[in-house]
Amino acid sequence: MRALESERDFGAWLLDIGEKKSGSTIQLPLQCYPSTQDTVHQLYSDIDFSSVNLQELKGRAILTVNDERSMEINNKVLEFMPGNETVYKAVDMIMSEDPQDQLTFPEEFLNSLTPTGLPPYELKLKIGCIIMLLRLPLKDYAIVHA
């Protein structure tokens, strides 16, 4: 619906997939495949991150099917950026009066989890990196005041 005139064929192809007209096997267009095995290097090596603007980032994206791979890619993109990396750690704790729960869910285990839609235990950032902030309804989460 919003495709440019030059992208009408690609839009029609996507609609065919959505309507299951393409069969059980889908062949991606050649532009969807990287020309090198290192897609991060291919997409971002020509950018000067110390003075990047949004127009330079427009049209550059790496799609992945899981959060684990997404974090690997994010960390690799951070390597291209100048400056010092800052690591922000989450606070994980079990709110239970049962002391057995503390043994069942030790802090190390909680720190290894990255639930869908939430940042990892260790969030690595640099000045100038782009982040997405999503605000979730407060009723779904408990807030602890120290």
UniProtKB/TrEMBL annotation:
It comes from the Eukaryota. Residues 108-135 form the DNA helicase Pif1-like 2B domain. PANTHER family: ATP-DEPENDENT DNA HELICASE, PTHR10492. This is DNA helicase Pif1-like 2B domain-containing protein. It comes from Araneus ventricosus (Orbweaver spider). The lineage of its organism: Eukaryota, Metazoa, Ecdysozoa, Arthropoda, Chelicerata.
